[in-house]
Each structure stands twice: as C-alpha cells, then as structure tokens.
Specification:
The structure is a homotetramer.
Chain A lengths: L7 H5 L3 H13 L12 H4 L7 E6 L4 E5 L5 E2 L4 H13 L17 H8 L10 H14 L3 H13 L5 E2 L1 H9 L2 H12 L7 H12 L1 E3 L1 H7 L1 H4 L14 H14 L5 H7 L4 E3 L4 E6 L3 E6 L10 H14 L5
Antiparallel strand pairs in A: 1-2, 1-8, 3-5, 4-5, 6-7, 7-8
Chain lengths: ~325, ~325, ~325, ~325
C-alpha cells in the first residue's frame, strides 16, 4: 500500500556510474585536504592520497569508484550495527539506558552525562555506544563472535576481521574512554566490567572493511529491514526507519544539523574516514577518505555525499 | 530526472479520509491530557476539549477532521516563515549570524549563547528566531505587513491576522525574551533596537490561523519550493530541502530526536498547540491540540503525527 | 576580652610611610602595564600614567603616595556599600535572594543564574549587585540620596558625587546588564522595574572618589563596625566580620583564590582601577591604577597590595 | 617586626576550657542530626552518637571535650598534608598543574575539568588532590611511608596508621574517582599510572587519627610554618600563610563562602566527619562528628566552629 517508493526501473534511470565518476573527478583535485585522526596512532599515519566510494542498489547492483576495495577500520560506523544487535536483544528497554536526542555540543561528552545522571544522549556518542556495547555483551556469551558473524552476513564477505593492531592502539591511549566508562559505571549504567566493555568496544571500532562491504552492510536499513545480501529480514521495517532517524539526528557527531542541511540522508561517520549513508527504500552507499574536517567527519566524504545528493535529488527532504 | 516521487494517483490510493478519522477517534478518548503553556496568560486559559487536523495534497485536495477550522496563535511555527523571508533577503549570509545545529538541551538557551558568543545554535530556538526577526526587519520597511502578506498568500486566506491580545500578553511577561534579546545585542548580533525586534517577534507569534491555513502555508516546502496555493515558486527546490532538514533536526525544541524517531517527518511546533509537518513532494499537514507535553510540543498533536506516519508509511526514513 | 588585636602603639612601629614609598618606587617602573576597561567608553580613555595609594589607621592617621587624591569612578567597589545598606534594611532575609558562595568562573554570570533559578551566587557579582540594588531601592524613598549620604559620611568628604557622564556611558552600552536584569526579573527576583534598578546601579558605579576617600569609607569594616571618620557604629561587629569574609571569597571577581593566596586581605576591586582592602581591627587602604589584568582587577593595584601584605606581615592568614 | 600577634598570656585569658564545655553542651542536644557519607560503605555504618573537639595552643597546651581521642579516617583533611609535601617537592611549579580558585559548584568536578583542559581548579577538590598525589608519588620512592612519617611527626603520635578496611572500601566503589583520574590522565596531567595514584590517594584518605592528633598536625599552619610538636620548621611562614588562604577559599567543598561567613577561619573538612581549623599565630583545632550536612561537611562540626569563632572573637575577619 506504500506506493511512494520508486521501482527499480525508475531508479535505473539515474546514471549512477556517471555521477560517481563526476564526483571522483572533483574530489581527486582536493586529495590532501583535512587531517587524520591523531589520537589513535595507527590512524595518524594513513596517507591522504586516496578516495573510495561504493553504492549498492536494492537489486544488488554495485557502482564504485576509486579505492572502493581498500580496507580501513570502520570505527564509529560500527555503532549502527551494535545498536541493531542491542535493539534485537532488549527492544525498547534500551531507551531506559540511553536517550535519543542530539548531543548538542562536542564538549558535552562528559558534561552532559553528569547533568543527566549517566544516561547518554544517544547511542552514537561514545558514551551511548559504551552502554550499547554493554547491552550486547550481556545478551550473548560471545559478543565479539556475534558481531563478526553479523558483519560478515551483512556484507557478504567472510574475510571481514578485526585489525588487532588498531584495537591495541586505541586501548593504549584510551584514558578518555576509560574515564567515560568508569563515569557511566559510577551511575550504575554499565553492568559488565569496564575492561570487558572497552575490549568489545575497541574491537568493534577496529573491524576492517572496504566501501563495498560497508555499503552492503547498510542494505537492511535501505530495505525496510530486509538485507538483500543475505536475504534475511534483519529487523522490522519500523525499526529500520527508526535507526535511520537516529543516524539523521545524531550520526555525524556535532555536525548532524549540517549533514541534514547539505546532504539530507541518514548517515554515520567514523574517524577512520568512512561514512555510510542510506537512501531509504532505494540504495545504501559508503565513501572513504581519511582526512577529517574539524568536526571529525571525512572531509571529502562529506563533500562527495553532498554532491551525490544534489546530483541525484535523492535527499529525503 | 527525479523519478523517486510518487505520482498523484499513487498517493490517491492512500485512504487519507479514513486514516484521519481513525486518528480522530483515537485522540478523542485522550482529550484533556497535557498542559497549556502557562507563561503566556492568554494561552493558559484555552480548554483542552478540542483537536483538529488538516492535510493538503500537492493537487490542492484538503482532508480535515475535528476543529481544523479553529483559529489559534501559531507561535513558533511562524519561525519557518520568517526564516524563509530572511533567507530570501540575505541568502547564505544568514548563516554567519545563526548556526544550523540542534540545540542539545532546554537549559541551553542562554548558556549556549554565552559559550558561543551570541551566535544562536539554530533559527528555531528563541534566540535564533530573534536574529532572524532582526534580519527581516532590516530587509524591508514594513516587516509586519510583509510577513502578513506572505502568510495570506501562502494560506490563501486574506483573513489571517495578528491576535493583538496575545501579542500584548506575551510582551507583558517577556522578561526572558528581553534578557535574550539584550544578551544577543551585547554581542552585536542584533542590528535593530531590542524593542523593535521583540515587537515584530511577538506579532509573528500571535498570528492567528487554523489547521487548514497552516497546512496550506507549508505547501511550498512540500513542493520543491512551489506553493500550490498561490502558484508561486517561493524558494528554490534546494532551499525548500534545506528548510525541511532544519525542521527535522531542530523544529520541535528538545524533542527533535524523538520526533525523527517516532514521526520521521520535518515538523515545526508552537506552544499554541499547533504542529505543522511536511511529506516532501507529497503533502503538508497541520495538527492542533493545546495540551503540551513536557518538552512543549502538543501532546496529542505529536501522537497524531506518529500515527499518521505509521499508518501511511510516509516517514522520510 | 579579645586581646588578639594589636594596640595602636604596636602598629605604630610599622614604618608605613617607608613601605608606601618603596611600593611606589616599584610600581612607578611598571606604569603602562595592563589595559583599561574598554566596554565603558569613559574608562577606555584614561591614561595609564598614574598610581595612587592611601592607608588609614584606626586612630585616623593617613599615609598616602602618588595620586592618592585623584578621583576616579569606584565601580564595583560600591557593591560593598550597597550590601551594607541592604543588610541594614532587611537583615538576613537578603540571603533568600542572593547566595554567599564564590562564583567559580567568569563565564558563569548568566549560566549559573540559569542553573540556580535566578539566585545570584554572591552579592559582588553583577547579578548579585542588581538584587542588592533592588533591595536598597525598595527600602527607601530616595535610594540615590541615601547612598550618597552614606558615602559622604563614611569618607568624611561632602564633595563625593556621581560622575553623570560615566553613568550615561555605562547605560549606553549596557545590553549585558539589561540582559542580566531582565533574566533575574523573569525569575521574580527583582521587585522594582528593571530600568529603576539599572539606573541606581549605574549611579552607584559612577560615584567619583579618591584613594583617601575610599580607604576612609572602609574604616567601619576595619573597626568592628565602627566608623572612625563619623564616629558612628555603622553595623555590628559581627556583620563587619561577615562582610569582610564575603570580600575575601568573592571580592575580586574570578581571582578571589589568587588574592587570598598572594594578598591575604579582604578586598573589593572595581574596573575603574581601584581596589579597597581591610586589615581587620587595624587599618583600611585603597590603591588605584586603571590598567587591569585579565581578570579585571587593577594590575599594579594587586601588586601593591601583595607587596604591602608581605612587607608588613599583615595578612589575615 | 610583626607585633600584631597576641602573646601567650593574652590568649591565656580566653577560658578555652569553659568555651569548649559550652559548645559540647550545645551540640550534645543535637546528636543524630545530619547523615553519614553513604558512598563509602565503611563510613555509612558509623553511629551519630558522638562528638569530639580538641584545641592546641602554640605553647602546646591542649583543651579537649567529648570523644577527642576517638579515631576516625581523616579523608579529605589529608589533602592539606599532601599539598604541603607536594609544595615542598616542586614549589611553585605545582601551580602549572593545578589552579588556586574556588570551584564554584559541586557538579563542576568533571565539567570544569573539561572546560579547563584537565587543570583542576584547586588542590582540595578530588581532581586537584589526585594531581597533588601524583606529584608526591613522583617526588619520592615510597610515598605512603613518606606521608605516614610526616603525619606521625606532625601529630607526635607514632600510632597513626592507615585503616586498610576503609581504603579497600573506597577503592571498591571508586568508579567516579577512576573516571576522574583517567580523565586527568587523558590531558597528560597525571604522570604515574592511574592505579598507583588512586592507591596512594585511598591510603591518604584512610589515615586514622583522633581530634588531638589532627589539631596538633595543623600546628605548623598556626605557627608560621613552625611545628610546635616536633620543633621543626616545616614550611616557610609565607607558605603557611598561603596554605591557610587556600583552606579559606576552597577547604570546605562548595561551602567555602558559607564557612568564611559563619566561621571566619581557614578550615579543611573530610567526609569522615572531621574538620580542622587554624587561628593563625594562635592555635589549631579539630572537631569531629560523622553526620554531614548537604554540602558534605560535618554538621555539628561546622556549628561548633561557628560558636567557637563567635565566643572567642578569633575570626580572622
């Protein structure tokens, strides 16, 4: 009865290959802009000489340009997948432990937690992701295997694995995350030991995937909960809708307003340089460029998504 | 070549009349819930015994239930219209004086202004709306007439007028707004006298309209900038997209995340009990119920929009 | 029974004249340092070529160096005197409307007010001084005359008067104070019209006095409540003690900790460049130099008090 | 030639024994008021049926009432002693790592740290005390022995020891302190491992002493740096003055303004129910009562100090 969604043939009239080539030409001239995340040693050394982009239609067709097969650590993009696992495990009870509002400010991380008594503002802030990780840990005996299996099923790539070097690198300099975790724990909002929560968190962030993997891994959010890669109904259509909504209002750190304004698609970024985005009912995509802007989002990734949305008119607004 | 948008006949298959009737039945049982805005004397007395809802399709067809023809003061809904006028007047230069990010917290109003040196977080917070009002004032000789003409053209109703009693009532108890305006002025971000800015602001808030008027007044945002009521191209398609994005991330006070999650439509609420919403490319709508929830949004209005979005599947996500 | 206080002859053994000369020699080499308060136009033009200091013993003897007879506007120093008048009028009831704690941070002015629902942290912040001014206004029919008479009696100088030019200059650029006053008013913590409160406040700040006047005006706080100038018991000994305590913890803006640490005397500063200080039971003093440090206190004034306290050993600690 | 300080015979005229008896009579009627610190399990069980007070003159005479020989854990009172050790070790370089201003608000603990990039506001907040502990740890090979030796020398009691049960109890529930320490570490302002800093910190807090011990341990701050117990010059007179100043502006959590106002003496409190205070050049004292007020200070201890200061007139103001 929902006749709003375009049919495959409608979408087929977009020249996605041409659009991606145009974007690739534009960003190529700007390689080198932005800065790598410097607080994780393993990321600070990545050269700024490559860009990749991949797009996956509901019918499975893939369009890609540049280093779309280059693997990088997905970092905060993983928060979408762990949120899905947590909601699958506990349902709406999750919202008693984490809120659904934009965070407002970068500096809010700990400040807001203190005002709000240990309830993170949303599942995509670090604080919220730690609570989500705690829920996943509590819900299964081997959370890391569970997440890895989920990722491999969603991406259709059994080679997806954790980059242990990056995971260790994050753990080594993670005093801020330790502070955050102990602070939440002091409010009783972590049930597992801080060390276990952070261990899982660092491993989810260090999952290594490429643009095609990640674009595919978002298919269930582009497909009303149905994953075209595995053929499974991963979550209900309503839940897919809601996760997309959360990405729109909180998926890109403090730049959610700016992303809605310039891109107009649900998206989730990571400091590894990746950004995934979803055109509900139509397609999912992923861009990668490791130079970040001052909000921590991939600088050319954001630009590429802006151009994509403008050229195709596929903003949700 | 944007083939994504459904044709009129597609949409026609939705039984909007039936859906509105169902919603009306559901909310009727809950009349009395919520609380009137009590800081404006004129609003505190409105009884909680009525609900109205109106929907306007791109082809001009109107569906309505309940007190859809009952007039109320539009309050913060007017911020969408003044933002449109301000962007029309100064374009992107507006963004040097007001930001586009969610505000984060209710208590942030003045706090955030102090941190961010007089630059409001977005044009829909009171602080941001005062800067927008200042821009409109500077851009034309008779701002009140300009706004009134705009509203009458958008709604197709020449009887739209300001409720002077409510405007006076707001001015009488407006020490907080005076504080806000002088505070912004102290940072040099108001160019007109504080009294003039507030006078205009109180009049825009006190515009009296009904659900049908307001749903129609949003047609240009449902129509890629084209107003189906007047036949005018009010703003560019791109600008319409962006205003919708701002409504999504900042249109419902501190509940923007919650609205995106449960409703999934760009929306703007007012403490008079109205909420307007847009299904881009498809329709615009308005609900009214003067009992507010603890975030200041119409309690049954929010519920009605949630139900509408679920029953039609017309969430943007 | 309180034998702790030194007798006049003990104190006489300090070579105050020599100490003041030494200090004068030291500061003379540093004239020009610091910056005038620039937000009040009348103060921004004062040259940084003069320094004055005066000291008044309990027996009435005066020691002075430099421009101790140069008149300047006392600005926030007046808050000590209006606090005295307010406590005289309403006693401990004042503390229901203003607290007695240090403010913590410069940026707290409005922020803290919002957290604490319109109750200023102490009577020496601008917000607190406005509430104090409101209390004084409510307690007598002609508050400005009352304060002027009080100042003339305390200083023994009938020529003390308000510098109307400076008062107007402050009012002209007073959007921040207007914001503050309306904000407090919105919480119901100002009983008089905002305009009246600010008018009184600007006049108290614009009182023009010299170092000898001001040092004398503090005699009642050095004398257990007894003013040696007029021979009157102005307040009880206990109240004098408490006002001194408030100056110690909140008298020098955000530098109260620093002042206690380096100077060790109850003191109150003003952006006109004056600082008064009290050695309880012994003497009162005043320094003036219009170049301020980054906390808004007279740069050489602070230095002179530090040196005075070290050379005499007259820190209260 | 500081003739301000009273001679022993002057002070002898105070009837300290009688004054302490009067205070004891007054507080006895109020036993049971206040609440034990409940976040440390070992403290939560202490009955509210005892009060102790001890006073030590410069000549060594001791006056005491009630349970002045009852041992309790000194908790935050130890921050005075570790500050002394840290200043002894690194001098003014300490002030590059911790500030000297009042903290403003209880909730500021982490918030302020975030604004101020890991520099605690003063050495008596938990955050500041952790930095001080870190400095002490870096300055000697066995910090716990060093502190214990210092405490025994200051109190003249070789039986002073750590209550290991309380230390463990604090460590068990110390997620907030872990958060604080990791947060400071993330700014590079802890040089030793977080575990080592907290281990030392919990042991300093769990030192078990009685009122007489603690009053004696403050003699060096009442004696211009000279400890009358050991006969040693512990710090310079100027440093003693400054530590007293810090106690005045920051020694009693968020109630420093209130303490200055009602007591008027440099003081440091602990959640174990102890409060030490100093009358510079005259005497040191300690009160104990484990029922706390809502700011975390001993309720009857504060009252006893207030009465003492009023009855003797020995406020510094």
């Amino acid at each position: 009865m929902h006749l709003r969604f375009p049919s495959a043939c409608d979408i087929g009239q977009h020249d996605f290959a041409g659009i991606l080539d145009t974007i690739h030409d534009e960003v190529r001239r700007r390689l080198g802009e932005g800065r790598q995340a410097d607080y994780i040693q393993a990321l600070a050394k990545v050269p700024l000489d490559g860009f990749g982009m991949a797009l996956v239609l509901r019918d499975g067709r893939v369009f890609e340009v540049g280093r779309a097969r280059h693997r990088f650590t997905i970092q905060s993009i993983s928060k979408v997948h762990t949120l899905t696992l947590a909601l699958d495990a506990v349902g709406d009870a999750l919202w008693e432990r984490v809120d659904r509002e934009p965070s407002g400010d970068a500096f809010n991380s700990l400040i807001q937690l203190e005002y709000e008594k240990g309830i993170p503002r949303n599942p995509f802030m670090n604080a919220g992701a730690l609570v989500v990780a705690d829920v996943v840990l509590s819900s299964c005996s081997d959370a890391r295997s569970r997440l890895l299996a989920f990722m491999r099923a969603r991406s259709g790539n059994t080679a997806v694995a954790c980059d242990e070097g990056v995971a260790r690198s994050e753990a080594d300099t993670g005093h801020r995350n330790l502070a955050l975790a102990h602070f939440i724990k002091s409010y009783g909002n972590l049930h597992n030991p801080v060390e276990d929560v952070l261990d899982f968190y660092y491993h989810q962030c260090a999952l290594s995937m490429d643009c095609v993997d990640l674009a595919r891994s978002m298919q269930y959010l582009a497909g009303n909960g149905h994953c075209s890669v595995s053929g499974e109904q991963v979550v209900s259509g309503e839940l897919a809708t809601r996760i997309n909504a959360l990405m729109m209002t909180a998926g890109t750190y403090d730049a959610a307003g700016d992303f809605a304004f310039y891109v107009g698609l649900p998206a989730k970024s990571g400091v590894g340089g990746g950004i995934v985005a979803v055109v509900p009912h139509v397609l999912s995509l992923c861009v990668w460029y490791p130079g970040l802007d001052d909000k921590g989002n991939s600088l050319l990734g954001r630009y590429a998504l802006h151009r994509f949305s403008r050229m195709t008119g596929l903003s949700v607004f």
